[in-house]
Amino acid sequence: MLQDIRKSSQGTAAKMVVGLIVVVFALFGVESIVGGIGGDPEAATVNGQEISQAEFLRAVEGKRRQILAQMGDKADPDLIDEGVLRSSVLEGMINEQVLVQDSDAKGLFVSEMAIDNYIRGIEQFQVDGQFNNERMQSLLRNAGLTLQSYRDSLKSQFVLGQARSGLIASAFVLDTEMDAIVALDRQARSFGMATVFKSDYVNSIVVTDEEVSAFYAQNKDDYKKPENVEVSYIVLDRAVLEESIELDVAALNKLYESEKQDYEGEEQRAASHILVKIDDDTSDEQALEKINDIQKKLQAGGSFESLAKEYSDDEGSAQSGGSLGLSPKGVYVSDFENALFSLSVGDVSMPIKTEFGYHLIRLDQIEANDVPSFDDMKEMLEARLLKQEVDELYAQLTERMSDITYSSPDLTEAAEVLGLEVKTLVGVSVDTKNELFSNRKIQKSLFSNELVVEKHNSELIEVADGKAVVFRVESYQKESVLPLESVKEKVRDYLKVGKASEFARSVGESFIERVKAGEAAAKVSENMGLNWKVYDDIRRDNIMLDRELITQTFTLSKDSVGQDGWLSLDMSDGDFSVVQLIKVTEGDSSSVSALEKSSISNMLGDTFGGGDYQVYQQVAIDLADIERRNKAK
Question: How far is CA 424 from CA 225, 229, 231, 236, 541, in A?
Fold first, then answer.
C-alpha cells in the first residue's frame, strides 16, 4: 500500500498535476473538473454519421483484449502502444462506416433469416452438435455483447462482404494471360552448381595479433559491455508457500458442509418461451395484445412448439420450439426467473413482462442434483481449501513484504520477518539471461534514478503468477569497452571466418574463369577439389534445394544460357556458390489439367479483384467527408 502511494505521488509531473487540481478547485469548484463529463461526444463523423466516443472506446477495449489473448501466457499490456492502438481502431471504424454507407446506397442487404441460420451454425454455440441458446447467450455475455449487437455486427460484415465479393468475382483472366502465367510458373531450369565451403579453410587461416589489434581499435563499439548493476533481492514464491501448508480436517469438513448445502438447494429447470418484443415497431399495448392472442391459441389446444416457431421474436430459440435448455437460478432476469420457478412441470405462465417484452413461459423439466459424499468431494475440497489458504497467505505476505521494503533501507528486515533469503546477482544488464531479471517489468525500473541514485528498494514486482520480487541496486557500472585481452580470441575467430569466406569466394571466381576459358566444368571441379553437380529441370517450387539458391537462379535471364549464364552467390552462412545456367524449358499450358487451370484462374482473379477492391475502397474513403475529433486520439 505504501509502495502505491510513493509510486503514484513521486516526480515533478505528478506534483504539478496535484497543484493544478488544487488551484482549479479553489477558483472554480468541483464542477470545473466533473461538470464537463457527460453526454456521448463523437470520436469521428463520416458524411455526417457519428461514431460515438462510447462506441470507439468499446472497440479499443475489444481490440486490446484480442491482442492480449493472442499474446497468451506472456501477455503484457505495457507492450501495447496506446497511441497506435487507438489510431488504428479509429481508422478501421471510419473505413468500415464509409463502406457500410456505400453498401447501403447500393441497396445491398442480408436477410434476417440468413443471419439466424449463420448463428445457429456456429460451432461454439452448439452442444453435442446442436444449437444451444443458453451457451450462445453465455458466450455473448462474456464477450460484452447482446444478441442484437452481435447480429448487427454480422449483418455489417456480410453486407461488406457482398461488395467485396462482387468486385472480386467481376475480375477475369484472358487466355493469353493464363498461358503467360503458366509458362512462367511452370518454367524449369537446368543448371550446374558447386559450393565452396568456408569451413574447409578456416583452420588453415592465420590471423596475426597485429590484425586483431587493428580491427579491435577500429571497431571498439562492437565490443562494449552494456551498463549493468549488482543487485540484491528477495523472492516470495507461492509454490514454496503451498508446500508449507497443512490442511486442517475440521476446515475440510466445514467446507464440505457449505458445499453440500449448495448441492441440496440447487436445481436446474428446462424452460421454453414465446417472446413478443417491445421495440420501435411494436408498442407495449400491441405486444400485450399479441401475446394474449397467442395464449388463447394455446388454451384452444395449439402446439407450444409450433406457436413459438411462428410467433416468437427470440430468433435464438424460436426455431427449436422456444426451448431455452436447462438453467439454474441466476441465469434469467428476475421477473422471468420468478415466474419459471413458480411453475409445475408442463404448466404455462400468464404473460410475463420483462425488459425484452412479453413472455409465455413453459416449464418442461426439473433436474435436481444428488449430494455427493465427503469422500467423493475430498480431492476437490482439498485443492480448493489449499488454494484459498495459499491465496490468503500469499496476499498477506506480499502486502507485508511491500510495506517493510518501502520503509527499510535494505532487504534484511523483510527477509528476517518473512523467512526469506537475500540473494545477490552481478552484471545484470538488458542482455541478462536470468529468469527473474530478464522480466520486462523488472527491466523497466532496473536503471531508474530512484533505484540507482536514490538507492530505494524497488516496488514489489510480480514477475510471474505467484512469484513476487523486491530488489535493490547495490552498485552501478556504466557502459564500457571490453579490454582487448578479454575479447582477443573472439575477434581472431571473427577475422578467421571472414578471411575464410573471402578465400572461398576467390576459389569460386577462379573456377568460373577457368570454365569460361574453355575448360570442362566437371574436370575443373575435380582438379580444384570442388563438388560440381548438374541439376535437371528444377522448378521454382522445388523444396529439396536451398531456397536462396533457387530464387537467385531464376533471376538469371533465360537468354544467358551457356557461357554468359553465371551466378556468383554469397550464401547467408558465409559459403560461396557458383551456378551456370544450362537450359530453360518454358511451362506448357496444354499439359495443365482443367482443374489446375481453374485453380490458377481463380487465384489470379482473386488477386486482380482484390487489387480492384482496394482501389475502390480507397476512392470511397477519399471522397467521404471525414472529421476526426481530438478526443479519439
Answer: 20, 11, 6, 15, 55
Name every residue whose Cβ is closer than 8 Å to that of residue 253 and which is 6 or more positions away in sequence: 374
Edge-to-edge strand list for the sheet holding 228-237: 423-428, 228-237, 467-477, 461-464
Picking from 133, 127, 144, 152, the residue whose alpha carbon sits closest to that of residue 331 is 133
Secondary structure (3-state) at 324: strand
CA angle 622, 626, 628 (to 5 degrees): 130
Nearest residue to 430 via CA among 574, 250, 224, 265: 224
**Cβ atoms of residues 358 and 287 within 8 Å:** yes
**Per-residue model confidence as pLDDT tens digits over 39-93:** 457 789 999 999 988 888 888 888 888 888 887 766 777 778 888 999 999 999 9
DSSP per-residue codes, 218-253:
H-GGGGEEPPEEEEEEEEEEHHHHHHH----HHHHH
Nearest partner of 420 among 480, 460, 371, judged by Cα: 460
Residue 575, all three cell numbers: 559459403
Short-list 620, 581, 578, 606, CA closest to 194: 578
Query: Which residues, including other chains, have CB under 8 Å from residue 417's CB and lie 6 or more apart?
Result: 400, 404
The DSSP bridge partners found for residue 480 are 225
Q: Show the cell assigned to 409.
A: 533501507
DSSP string, 443-460: HHHHT-HHHHTS-PPPPP
Report DSSP letters for 22-64, one per residue: HHHHHHH-THHHHTT--S--EEEEETTEEEEHHHHHHHHHHHH
Are the beta carbons of 115 and 106 closer than 8 angstroms? no
What is the per-residue pLDDT across 1-38, written as a single tens digit (0 to 9) for each?
444 434 444 444 333 333 333 333 333 333 333 333 34
Question: Distance between CA atoms of 486 and 400, rounded to whole angstroms?
Answer: 45
Please give the grid coordinates belonging to residue 332. 434469467
For 571, left (φ over 0), alpha (ψ -120 to 50), or beta? beta
Taking CA atoms, 525 is separated from 196, 421, 505, 506, 532, in Å, by 10, 66, 15, 14, 6
DSSP 281: S
Three-state DSSP state, 520: coil
CA atoms within 13 A on the CB side of 432: 21
Name the grid cell of 232: 540484491
The conformational region for residue 481 under phi > 0 = left, psi -120 to 50 = alpha, else beta, is beta
Structural contact between residues 479 and 261, judged by C-beta atoms closer than 8 angstroms: no
Q: How many residues does the chain have?
A: 633
Adjacent-strand bridge partners of 191: 535, 581
Which distant-in-sequence residues (6+ apart) come within 8 Å of 155 by Cβ?
Answer: 110, 115
Q: Write down the pTM of the prediction.
A: 0.54
Helices (H), 121-248: 133-142, 147-170, 175-185, 209-218, 238-244
Show the 3-state SS of 573-609: CCCEEEEEEEEEECCCHHHCCHHHHHHHHHHHHHHHH
